[in-house]
Specification:
By secondary structure, this protein is of the alpha/beta class. It has two domains: about 210 residues, Enolpyruvate transferase domain (UDP-n-acetylglucosamine1-carboxyvinyl-transferase, Chain, Alpha-beta prism), CATH 3.65.10; about 210 residues, Alpha-beta prism (UDP-n-acetylglucosamine1-carboxyvinyl-transferase, Chain), CATH 3.65.10. It is built from 14 helices and 23 strands. Strands 2-15-17-16 form a four-stranded mixed sheet. Helix 6 links the parallel strand 10 and strand 11. Helix 1 runs parallel beside helix 3 and helix 1 packs parallel to helix 7. The chain is globular, with a radius of gyration of 21 Å.
């Protein structure tokens, strides 16, 4: 599909009502992983519902640069996998653009291959920490050169040895990179997590024939002499994208939104429990067949109350924190979020970006090194706010603008094309 044209600055008017139903783009967390694993499989995988955002496009481009054949014209995408040995050395750097998932997971894929490649990205991605995945991969024998733990990263394929990794910071990306590297290692590879993170990689590996064990906070893969089996998968709608519409519906009593065919993986849906604890009415119609649970979610606004979130809550809803902050501005009482320092090293410093944007709109926000406090209920006003080039900040502030007293201008709004190119079109369809 051609890219959606999004203006750099978007003006969002207050809404008198939010109502409707829709579907959101496919889950990019699943899309990144299934594309890479399909490239490592032997045979043709068919993947329906791949999102059109720039992050997934970066993964497709990186794989194609390694000579993986990926067809995306009409119907499901077809990935012609041939395993690590089918990769060809790329002619230039592999451009991860703004996608940290692409860079971190590709490190795991390439570490045990036979090719050498340099992974690079945009200015934002070059600032993001990569040592957390480089160091454990090096302990397995990976040869990786970096700029003080930041991109660009040069990886030279090597023989890997399985290891037991104990993560100090919960990260599904680091876990997935290590598990993917473990597929080519000798001996088992295990990852111990301080808090359980999203399990898309484990589900896909099982579906593709890998020996995966999960117990007591530890995930272990045992390499097999058999190649991964190709897969047929329909990627469900991205829960993190749907969360912005759920948050919008929760802002006022009687507002309501239904999202269909959205992913309902239990490791991703903590946001639903948080919204419910804040007072929103939640209805879920789930289909648990297949690799990934999916279904419909309807959120209806009710009177909101504040909540307190700790580190485990944050880890379970890491991508939805910007949306939670918007809901917190309209809740009675003081919402406290702690243990959220990881948000400072996302596509932007999300704690700082959200605090700045909400203050400009009239909210009372106390920012700390590892969290924020939101004092509700706030009477938000229209303002000019800056997304900092972060798609989730742009979408969150657009939702906040729905309950402001006047129009809000969101600068750098075109960053939504990273994950949700039609976001502002869908916003217009829901706002009455």
């Amino acid at each position: 599909m051609p890219p959606t044209d999004v203006e750099s600055a978007q003006i969002v008017e207050p809404a008198t009502r939010i109502a409707g139903e829709l579907r959101v783009p496919g889950d990019k967390s699943i899309a990144h992983r299934v594309l890479m694993l399909a490239a490592l499989a032997h045979g043709e995988s068919r993947i329906a519902g791949l999102p059109d955002g720039e992050d997934v496009a970066a993964t497709v481009a990186c794989l194609r640069s390694l000579a993986v054949k990926i067809d995306r014209i009409g119907g499901p995408a077809r990935v012609h996998g041939g395993g690590w040995r089918s990769f060809s050395p790329p002619h230039g750097p592999l451009d991860s653009a703004n996608s940290g998932t692409t860079m971190r997971l590709m490190l795991g894929v390439l570490a045990g291959s036979w090719v050498s490649a340099t992974l690079d990205g945009d200015t934002s991605l070059r600032r993001r920490p990569m040592a957390r995945v480089i160091e454990p991969l090096r302990s397995m024998g990976a040869r990786i050169q970096s700029e003080d733990g930041h991109a660009p990263l040069t990886v030279t394929g090597a023989r890997l040895q399985g290891r037991r990794h104990v993560l100090s910071v919960p990260s599904a990306q680091v876990k997935s990179a290590l598990l993917m590297a473990g597929l080519s290692a000798s001996g088992p590879t295990s990852v111990v997590e301080p808090v359980a993170t999203r399990d898309h990689t484990e589900r896909l590996l099982r579906a593709m024939g890998t020996d995966v064990h999960v117990a007591a906070g530890t995930v272990e893969v045992r390499p097999s002499h058999q190649p991964l089996r190709p897969i047929e998968l329909a990627v469900p709608g991205d829960f993190s994208s749907a969360a912005f519409w759920m948050a919008a519906a929760a802002l006022r009593p009687g507002w309501s939104v239904a999202i269909h065919e959205v992913g309902l993986n239990p490791s991703r849906t903590a946001f639903l429990r948080l919204l419910e604890s804040m007072g929103a009415e939640i209805q879920v119609d789930a289909d648990n067949t297949g690799v990934e649970p999916h279904g419909s979610v309807t959120v209806t606004g009710r009177r909101l109350r504040a909540v307190t979130m700790g580190a485990a809550d944050v880890a379970a809803a890491i991508d939805e924190i910007p949306a939670i902050l918007i809901v917190a501005t309209q809740a009675e009482g003081t919402t406290v979020i702690e243990g959220a320092a990881e948000l400072r090293v996302k596509e932007s410093d999300r704690l700082a970006a959200m605090s700045e944007g909400l203050r400009r709109m009239g909210a009372v926000v106390d920012e700390r090194a590892d969290g924020v406090t939101i004092h509700g209920q706030a009477k938000l006003r229209g303002a000019t706010v800056d997304s900092k080039g972060d798609h989730r900040i742009a979408m969150a502030l657009a939702v906040a603008a729905l309950v402001a007293s006047g129009p809000t201008t969101i600068e750098d709004a075109d960053c939504v094309t990273i994950s949700y190119p039609d976001f502002f079109t869908d916003l217009q369809g829901l706002a009455k």
